[in-house]
Specification:
Helix content is 30%, strand content 36%. By secondary structure, it is an alpha/beta fold. The strands form 2 sheets. The chain has a 7-stranded mixed sheet with strand order 5-6-4-3-7-8-9, with helices on both faces. Strands 1-2 form a two-stranded antiparallel sheet. Helix 3 packs across helix 4. It binds adenosine monophosphate.
């Protein structure tokens, strides 16, 4: 399936100069989510994964679907102030701003082997913060999967400690 053709470019969103890759146009195409999740399920089924960890908010769309398909726990990493129980947190810089992510302190343990999911890899700052949270809880990161990778921002280099998997690659101004 040509996923790249289903992703809409929105220039100057959310701030001037950012070419936003909009995955809602992909989600409007019924078979696309199934194609993505079925592919990941096949990839991760043999890898003894114990949980799927995903990023607030677009990562939840893909991550929760994968957790459902694999019958695995779904662990949300959320923006500051959203998770109700005891949390640990990490600050990070976005391509367009600064943010804090949190995970429940009891969400994972040393026994866990996780796949982490987000919609898009840009500079890698978001996923680096998530990886720190997961590792502070002692879990092992088996792979980090994205629907889209903006290759010219070198997020893969920033995350070079981890195996990275992306379904669609764009240059940043494509
Ligand atoms: P980064 O931390 O720079 O890798 O940014 C990745 C996060 O920001 C992901 O959660 C994306 O959803 C979002 N993001 C960053 N840049 C873009 C973009 N150009 N289009 C769509 N989403 C983006």
């Amino acid at each position: 399936m040509d996923l790249a053709a289903l992703i809409r470019n929105v220039p100057d969103f959310p701030v001037p100069g950012i070419q936003f890759k909009d995955i809602t146009s992909l989600l409007q195409h019924g078979p696309a989510l199934k194609f993505i999740v079925d592919g990941w399920k096949e990839r991760y089924a043999p890898q003894d994964i114990s949980a799927i960890v995903a990023a607030d908010a677009r990562g939840f769309i893909f991550g929760s679907a994968l957790a459902y398909a694999m019958e695995l726990p779904f662990i949300p990493v959320r923006k500051k102030g959203k998770l109700p129980a005891n949390v640990i947190s990490e600050d990070f810089e976005l391509e367009y701003g600064v943010a804090t992510f949190e995970i429940h302190a009891d969400a994972l343990t040393k026994a866990d082997r996780v796949v982490m999911i987000d919609d898009l890899l840009a500079t890698g700052g978001t996923m680096q913060a998530m990886a720190k949270l997961v590792e502070r809880l002692g879990a092992e990161i088996v792979e980090i999967a994205f629907v889209v990778e903006l290759t010219t921002l070198h997020g893969r280099k920033r995350l070079s400690k981890y195996p990275i998997h992306a379904l669609v690659e764009f240059e940043v101004d494509e």
